[in-house]
């Protein structure tokens, strides 16, 4: 079973009865589920994942002290700590794992401030631009088992994807980086005999291309070690993951370099097709730079449109 399935089973067998029997007066104000940090919250966990920070557990989310006071919060924490120490052959961590406690009782405002810097999900342009994308992914992944108060669901709905103009600004900047690194600088580095620089160009191209692909799918890119796993599961352009892996894992000798250059152009062409299909660009060519500026020109908010094209990357 996947970690999130184990968490839900643990909740149904022990957590839910505990809340219903001992905290009925708080139930209208609570939510429970599993989302945040950890491969299990994305459904990416496997046997290797269980060597650290992995346990049967879930989160109980409660609003601020004006609604659920410290006394009740402390009672909830004690009750959660007393749940069975082992479930399905997995032991619960008695000490805080690396990176802090991922399960247990959490204040809603504190959780979202930690992840995205906002207690209620209301973000300004600067926050949308600067909060790491993996943080948005962790704030919106996983599963909510119940949300009687509705606040967790409301906040997650606000931040489930980038607003249109923010998405376009990020898209434009990354398209231009793809153009510079892949369509222009990769071949120049090869011609100069700079194989290490060429591989750096490949890295920059793949990094920006993966960002573009997630944006075009309306999904947040997770932490880098799960990027390719998540890429393969996307609806659009998921097949590019295999080609990008080839770009990253091969050398830049003459024959391979030529293949890699054409692979870069192929990825660019596939992305341009989606841009045109989505009517995100008015350009009609294979030059990613022109498409980048066309996307930027389509941004409705003048203040965002007139910022440097790299402002969001």
Question: What does this entry look like structurally?
Answer:
Helix 7 (164-191) packs antiparallel against helix 11 (254-277), helix 7 (164-191) runs antiparallel to helix 12 (288-297) and helix 10 (240-249) runs antiparallel to helix 11 (254-277). It contains 13 helices and six strands. The strands form two sheets. Strands 5-2-1-6 form a four-stranded mixed beta sheet, with helices on both faces. Strands 3-4 form a two-stranded antiparallel ribbon. A hairpin with a 2-residue loop joins strand 3 and strand 4 (90-91). It has 313 residues and is α+β, with helices and mostly antiparallel strands.
Walk me through the topology.
Layout lengths: L2 H20 L8 E4 L24 E4 L7 H12 L4 E2 L2 E2 L12 E4 H9 L8 H6 L2 H8 L2 E5 L3 H8 L5 H28 L3 H22 L10 H5 L8 H10 L4 H24 L10 H10 L4 H4 L8
Parallel strand pairs: 2-5
Antiparallel strand pairs: 1-2, 1-6, 3-4
């Amino acid at each position: 079973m996947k970690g999130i399935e184990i968490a839900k089973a643990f909740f149904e067998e022990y957590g839910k009865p505990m809340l219903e029997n001992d905290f009925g007066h708080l139930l209208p104000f609570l939510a429970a589920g599993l989302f945040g940090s950890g491969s299990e919250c994305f459904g990416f966990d496997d046997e290797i994942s269980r060597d650290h920070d992995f346990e049967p557990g879930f989160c109980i989310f409660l609003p601020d002290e004006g609604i659920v006071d410290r006394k009740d919060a402390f009672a909830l924490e004690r009750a959660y700590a007393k749940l069975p120490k082992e479930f399905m052959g997995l032991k619960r961590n008695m000490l805080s794992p690396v990176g802090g406690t991922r399960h247990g009782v959490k204040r809603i405002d504190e959780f979202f401030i930690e992840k995205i810097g906002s207690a209620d999900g209301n973000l300004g342009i600067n926050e949308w631009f600067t909060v790491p994308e993996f943080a948005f992914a962790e704030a919106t992944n996983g599963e909510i088992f119940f949300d009687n108060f509705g606040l967790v669901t409301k906040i997650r709905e606000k931040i489930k994807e980038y607003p249109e103009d923010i998405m376009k600004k990020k898209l434009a900047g990354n398209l231009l980086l793809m153009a510079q690194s892949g369509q222009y600088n990769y071949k120049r580095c090869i011609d100069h005999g700079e194989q290490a620089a060429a591989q750096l160009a490949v890295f920059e191209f793949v990094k920006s291309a993966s960002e573009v692909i997630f944006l075009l799918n309306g999904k947040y890119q997770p932490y880098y070690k799960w990027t390719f796993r998540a890429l393969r599961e996307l609806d659009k352009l998921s097949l590019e993951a295999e080609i990008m892996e080839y770009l990253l894992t091969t050398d830049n000798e003459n024959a391979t370099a030529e293949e890699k250059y054409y692979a870069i152009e192929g990825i660019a062409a596939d992305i341009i097709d989606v841009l045109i299909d989505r009517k995100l660009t008015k350009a009609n060519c294979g030059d990613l730079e022109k498409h980048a500026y066309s996307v930027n020109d389509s941004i409705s908010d003048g203040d965002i449109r007139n910022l440097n094209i790299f402002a969001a990357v």
